[in-house]
User: Which sequence fits this backbone?
């Protein structure tokens, strides 16, 4: 079960509304599934509008309970998006590193959020399906955490399905002041890190008061190495609540 | 919406409404819509006759013995229903909902069925009989005070024929008409006609009915009269996947057998499927939940999709066949979701179920490509397929998308968003405390309720309960979704008041849904109360406590929120679209892009509206009042008038040339015509336009340009259109327009502007513009300048310093002067073009270019402009800049260093006459190159200014001074503000010069004269060329040339004239042309050539009329 790290004093807990946006099939639901259930499987749940899930994330000095809205894929549902990103404190804008068009779409979402969402929203740009890039192009498990940047040069690999260079997306993210990660929902690579980074980036001031206490998942930064292991990862009690 | 459109629609509506009232034909189509909605009939039906009447039905189980129809006493025993009998083309309907569809009926009386229905749904108690299901109609007891009809239906009729014994009792409906004898007879005549015509439909009916379970079920037990006999000859009809994979829920617990028996009994007495008569028991039987085998059939019946299937029984199969093997985006999307549609149901774990689902969704996506496929449809259709055949589900889906859930699954899903808004507002109204709590805790209700509506509770509640909701939904309509939703919140109110975030809120409801089968009062002493399940409680709360929520309520609410919702969607679409415009668009400001977006779609939309309005006006008899009728029924006018609105779904995105003209007229005052056709005149000028039949609008009686100014049609506009139409498809997208404007307006680089203009006229792209092109260019310059410019030109005129005693006069003077200045610049330009043109002859060209180079090899110009670029150096071999009048450059030939030329052109070296002659010689093809063109432009301060700023600024977008008041991102909504003559000041709707000229001051006339003068210069040159040509033809070329040359020479700067003499001389010369025989000459030339267009571009005869036109031009 969860390593409750034996912390005797309960950390203050606050909930953070997070919305996932991005083109259909970039792996939004898979990312959430990985984060919430540490699982990767074909999505069998039909999503109408958006699926709602929750997951806790323990930081050294507090617990963040993510309330995750995973928006539906079809293009026409885009006009419902404002309903979901309204009041969101964080957003995961996802693209597929094998589909350049999906980055363009992601950029649109970023622009939309910057213009329409709550002012302090923390946005993470996430290039998913990094496992499809050739090994040289993606930091192997156990690599230095800096690997994300290190792969910039190795884009010419033959078997590489990558179409969006890390450099390009990263530059864009930096320009716009976004968090940036390349992940794989399939292997779990950097999935937890994204959420942890977001948890850290949420300004204390924008946190709502504590809400309910529940199971914990230790997703502290220090656990990064564990996440990179391909094997099953222990998680806390599943608080996921699909609707 | 934008103002002027709203007014258009209002105008259309009053037009239509009054039309509907005054011209009162026996059938009024607005009533048709209402009629169709009440009885759930296809769009083809209209109420032809109606009459108040009383329906008498035999008492249950009393009709076993053959009754004597003529026995009055037997009639008196039975259920009596007072209501209205309606006759349409193919149906005879009776309803206790006494709506009247007479053309004289008020809206409230023809929509009374949208009010309280007491559980009977809009069609109330009664029947909806296809005429082809009527076997016989008899007139009963013809006493003078009674007029009764006995209608024998096909139900049981056949049985009588074939197997005398089985059903001795064909269904007979006794209707007593209450009206004057004449009314009754008219009704009967109509009925007779209808019956005769309906005979041919019998086959369709039999075919469809034969596939229904009720038919099988009743016939089956009829033939095998004795229980236990298993002589079932035919296979049971397809009653959905449930028949193969079991129906959801426990049949015993659902008391399916008992329900089946009750239905059987009901149908034996009241007819089945098409001939069923609705009595209170019918509605009760639906309320308690339909039995598995009949569920699909009753849904079909109550939703009215059965009637669609009668109409076209093979449509489903045909759709599939017709589109077999084709691919589409919808199909791809469907494919992705097939495995995610009720995956827990065994039928959808098999290829059989998946196959059915795929076929229905695909067939519908072809039937209605505007909707195509929307996620959630997969879930709804999957749920339907458990109880019905593919064809049945196909038609139910069609009724859902078209009528019951308008706009839910559309491209923008506006119906979904709208109903969420409606739901929220109902919650606010009925549960204010809960609503306040939601607002306080920042929980958005619709994120929770949206799936309820979009997938009809199918994914939210356990299936068996969702089906119970559907049973009532199909009978009573969409209001049921709202009633159930409100009841859910009411029942969970207390717990929800404790929930402070989305998560808790959702989990409260999730828990509730999972316990719907539990007792609502588990602790109650009363065993009866204890037996009440939470679902039953939900139904009671929904339909008792919220019985006040009627279809009328929903329509009203929809109408109230519609605009806000559509506007939100449109803003969203706009933001998205603007972001998609690509890198070129970055040259324009966000406000400008927003403005262009609005203007672009605004024009397309308005044009579509106008076409439709005109269309409607033309056949108003057929369509009158439909808009209003649909609004009463659904709150959303799904009819044509709003089609094309971005938020409602696919709308036009392509702008043809006519629309482009209109677009330009809204952003540039030069694009407004000088000679508007009178509003009522028959306009089909477009047909003759360059682009032939590109015009979509028909001959109009209303101004074809709507409220905006009528656009000009000038060669320049055509060229612009073609240049922007990069894909050569004869239409422009927003992308094309933005890119085009970005190049013209978004660049601060005069060189780029000059080459862009040059390219417009370089038809074959060879870098050269020939004689025709030069003339066209000059015409364009005059055309563009004829109303002056926003950007003040450098004051080169003495008048600009004039003291302003009377400001208007001063203004006039200034403008006049400015335009004169432009005019003279253009005439000088034309002249120089021909002087410096390169003859299109190889050897000559070399000569010319070398001479040009040597001529222009001036290096010593002092003024270095910021616009300076290498391109210029390329041309001249040196850097030159616009010579200013004060700084006379020294011509290399040293001819006139001592001159004091005021015309900038004077700084240009003169060519030797021979070259100029050659250029004018039509037999000698000539052309100017971009470098020459640049040089000529830069040689003239006025033209330089024109290309530097004035041309770009002549496009007035959002950032234009006039519009700064609302320069926040403009929305569709405030677009109207800009439409009437953007160039004009806000107070003056007429396009006028620089917005300063008060109309009626006559200044326009002056301007027109000047412009016309300019045109004449061009014409004059052309005439002289023609003359030269003639001379050549006569073989007397050389000597005569001098005569022709004399005039230009006279005016050539650097001659004996100083100061502004040149200007004056031009004008003097031009004035000459205006008078006397010359004028005749000019116009005749024009008539012959037809090449020179007057400012309005309306071609022949314009120029001649030039000066008299003044009064007319001012509208
Ligand atoms: N190779 C690989 N496939 C992925 C990854 N994430 C998602 N997918 C696949 O991409 C498809 C779409 O995923 P889904 O989560 O439904 O995307 P969504 O539409 O954005 O929610 C599925 O077939 C997933 O199995 C990943 O990290 N790597
Ligand atoms: Mg998804």
Assistant:
């Amino acid at each position: 079960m969860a390593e409750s790290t034996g912390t005797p004093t309960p950390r203050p807990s606050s909930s953070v509304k997070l919305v996932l946006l991005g083109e259909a099939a970039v792996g939004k639901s898979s990312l959430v599934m990985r984060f919430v259930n540490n699982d990767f499987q074909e999505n069998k749940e039909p999503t109408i509008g958006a699926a709602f899930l929750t997951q806790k994330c323990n930081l050294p000095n507090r617990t963040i309970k993510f309330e995750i809205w995973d928006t539906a894929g079809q293009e026409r549902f885009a006009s419902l998006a404002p309903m979901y990103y309204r009041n969101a404190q964080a957003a995961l804008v996802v693209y597929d590193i094998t589909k350049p068009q999906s980055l363009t779409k992601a950029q649109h979402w970023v622009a939309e959020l910057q213009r329409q969402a709550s002012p302090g929203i923390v946005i993470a740009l996430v290039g998913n399906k990094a496992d499809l890039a050739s090994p040289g192009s993606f930091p192997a498990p156990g690599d230095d955490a800096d690997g994300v940047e290190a792969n910039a040069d190795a884009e010419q690999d033959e078997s590489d399905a990558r179409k969006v260079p890390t450099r390009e997306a990263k530059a864009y993210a930096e320009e716009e002041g976004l968090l940036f990660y390349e992940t794989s929902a399939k292997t779990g690579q950097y999935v937890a890190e994204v959420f942890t980074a977001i948890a850290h980036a949420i300004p204390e001031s924008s946190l709502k008061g504590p809400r309910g206490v529940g199971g914990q998942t230790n997703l502290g930064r220090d656990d990064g190495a564990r996440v990179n292991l391909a094997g099953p990862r222990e998680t806390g009690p599943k608080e996921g609540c699909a609707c | 919406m934008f103002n002027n459109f709203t007014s258009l629609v209002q105008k259309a509506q009053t037009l239509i409404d009054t039309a509907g009232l005054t011209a009162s034909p026996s059938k009024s189509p607005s009533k048709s819509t209402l009629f169709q909605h009440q009885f759930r009939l296809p769009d083809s039906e209209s109420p032809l006759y109606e009459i108040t009447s009383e329906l008498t039905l035999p008492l249950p189980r009393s009709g076993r013995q053959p009754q004597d129809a003529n026995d009055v006493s037997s009639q008196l025993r039975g259920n009596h229903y007072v209501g209205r009998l309606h006759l349409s083309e193919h149906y005879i309907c009776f309803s206790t909902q006494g709506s009247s569809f007479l053309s004289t009926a008020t809206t409230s009386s023809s929509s009374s069925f949208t009010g309280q229905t007491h559980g009977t749904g809009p069609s109330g108690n009664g029947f909806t009989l296809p005429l082809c299901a009527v076997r016989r109609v008899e007139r009963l007891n013809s006493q003078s005070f009674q007029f009764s009809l006995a209608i024998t239906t096909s139900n049981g009729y056949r049985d009588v024929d074939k197997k005398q014994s089985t059903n001795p009792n064909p269904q007979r409906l006794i209707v007593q008409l209450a009206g004057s004898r004449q009314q009754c007879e008219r009704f009967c005549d109509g009925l007779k006609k209808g019956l005769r015509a309906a005979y041919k439909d019998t086959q369709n009916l039999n075919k469809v009915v034969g596939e229904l379970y009720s038919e099988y079920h009743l016939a089956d037990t009829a033939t095998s009269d004795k229980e236990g006999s298993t002589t079932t000859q035919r296979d049971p009809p397809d009653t959905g996947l449930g028949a193969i994979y079991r129906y959801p829920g426990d049949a015993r617990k659902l008391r399916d057998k008992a329900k089946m028996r009750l239905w059987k009994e009901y149908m034996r007495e009241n007819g089945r499927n098409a001939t069923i008569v609705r009595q209170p028991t019918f509605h009760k039987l639906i309320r308690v939940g339909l039995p598995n085998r009949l569920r699909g059939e009753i849904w079909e019946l109550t939703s009215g999709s059965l009637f669609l299937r009668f109409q076209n029984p093979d449509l489903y199969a045909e759709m599939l066949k017709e589109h077999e093997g084709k691919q589409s985006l919808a199909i791809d999307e469907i494919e992705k979701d097939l495995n995610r549609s009720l995956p827990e149901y065994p039928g959808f774990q098999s290829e059989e179920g998946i196959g059915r689902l795929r076929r229905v969704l695909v067939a519908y996506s072809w039937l209605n490509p505007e909707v195509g496929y929307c996620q959630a449809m997969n879930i709804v259709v999957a749920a339907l397929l458990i109880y019905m055949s593919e064809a049945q589900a196909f038609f139910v889906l069609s009724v859902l998308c078209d009528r019951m859930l308008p706009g839910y699954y559309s491209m923008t899903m506006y119906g979904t968003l709208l109903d969420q808004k409606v739901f929220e507002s109902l919650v606010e109204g009925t549960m204010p405390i809960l609503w306040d709590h939601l607002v306080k805790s920042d929980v958005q209700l619709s994120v929770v309720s949206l799936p309820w509506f979009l997938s009809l509770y199918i994914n939210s509640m356990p299936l068996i309960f969702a089906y119970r909701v559907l049973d009532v939904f199909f009978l009573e309509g969409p209001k049921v979704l709202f009633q159930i939703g409100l009841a859910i919140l009411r029942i969970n109110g207390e717990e929800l008041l404790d929930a402070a975030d989305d998560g808790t809120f959702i989990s409260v409801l999730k828990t509730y849904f999972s316990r719907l089968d539990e007792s609502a009062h588990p602790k109650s002493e009363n065993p009866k109360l204890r037996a009440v399940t939470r679902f039953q409680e939900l139904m009671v709360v929904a339909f008792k406590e919220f019985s006040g929520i009627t279809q009328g309520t929903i329509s009203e609410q929809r109408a109230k929120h519609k605009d806000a919702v559509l506007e939100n969607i449109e803003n969203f679409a706009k933001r998205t679209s603007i972001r998609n415009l690509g890198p070129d668009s970055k040259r324009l400001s966000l406000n400008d892009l927003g403005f262009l977006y609005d203007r672009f779609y605004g024009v397309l939309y308005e044009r579509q509206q106008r076409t439709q309005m005109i269309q409607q006006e033309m056949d108003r008899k057929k369509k009158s009042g439909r808009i209003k009728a649909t609004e009463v029924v659904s709150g959303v006018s799904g009819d044509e008038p709003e089609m094309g609105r971005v938020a409602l779904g696919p709308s036009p995105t392509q702008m043809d040339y006519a629309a482009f003209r209109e677009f330009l007229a809204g952003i540039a005052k030069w694009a407004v015509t000088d000679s508007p056709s009178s509003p009522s005149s028959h306009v089909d000028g477009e047909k003759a336009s360059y682009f032939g039949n590109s015009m979509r609008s028909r001959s109009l009686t209303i101004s074809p340009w709507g409220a905006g100014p009528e656009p000009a049609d000038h060669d320049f506009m055509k060229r612009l259109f073609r240049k922007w139409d990069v894909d050569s498809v004869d239409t422009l997208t927003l992308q094309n327009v933005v890119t085009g404007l970005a190049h013209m307006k978004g660049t601060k680089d005069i060189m780029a502007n000059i080459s862009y203009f040059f390219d417009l006229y370089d038809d074959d792209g060879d870098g050269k513009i020939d004689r025709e092109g030069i003339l066209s260019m000059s015409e364009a310059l005059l055309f563009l300048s004829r109303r002056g410019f926003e950007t003040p030109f450098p004051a080169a005129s003495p008048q600009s310093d004039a003291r302003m005693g009377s400001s208007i006069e001063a203004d006039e003077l200034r403008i006049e002067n400015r335009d004169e200045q432009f005019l003279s610049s253009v005439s000088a330009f034309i002249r120089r073009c021909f002087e410096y043109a390169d003859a299109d002859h190889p050897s000559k060209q070399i000569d010319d270019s070398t001479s040009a180079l040597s001529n222009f090899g001036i290096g010593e110009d002092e003024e270095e402009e910021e616009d300076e670029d290498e391109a210029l150096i390329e041309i001249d071999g040196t850097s030159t800049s616009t010579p200013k009048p004060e700084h006379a450059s020294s011509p290399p030939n040293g001819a006139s260093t001592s001159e004091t030329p005021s015309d900038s052109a004077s700084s240009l070296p003169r060519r030797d006459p021979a070259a100029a002659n050659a250029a004018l010689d039509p037999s000698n093809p000539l052309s100017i190159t971009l470098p020459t063109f640049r040089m000529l432009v830069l040689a003239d301060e006025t033209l330089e200014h024109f290309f530097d700023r004035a041309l770009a600024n002549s496009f007035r977008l959002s950032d234009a001074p006039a519009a700064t008041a609302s320069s926040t991102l403009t929305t569709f909504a405030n677009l109207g503000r800009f439409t009437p003559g953007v160039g004009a000041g806000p107070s003056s709707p007429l396009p006028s010069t620089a917005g300063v000229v008060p109309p009626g001051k006559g200044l326009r006339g002056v301007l027109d004269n000047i412009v016309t003068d300019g045109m004449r210069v061009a014409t004059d040159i052309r005439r002289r060329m023609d003359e030269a040509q003639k001379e050549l033809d006569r073989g007397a070329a050389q000597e005569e040339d001098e005569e022709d040359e004399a005039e230009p020479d006279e005016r050539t700067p650097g001659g004996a004239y100083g100061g502004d003499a040149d200007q004056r001389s031009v004008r003097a010369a031009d004035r000459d042309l205006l008078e006397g025989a010359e004028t005749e000459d000019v116009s005749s030339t024009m008539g012959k050539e037809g090449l020179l267009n007057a400012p309005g571009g309306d071609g022949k005869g314009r120029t001649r009329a030039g000066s008299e036109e003044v009064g007319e031009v001012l509208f």
About this structure: Chain A has one domain: 13-232. The domain at 13-232 of chain A is CATH 3.40.50.300 (Rossmann fold). The first strand of chain A starts at residue 13 and ends at 22. The helical segments of chain A are 28-37, 81-85, 100-116, 147-150, 166-176, 191-201, 224-228.
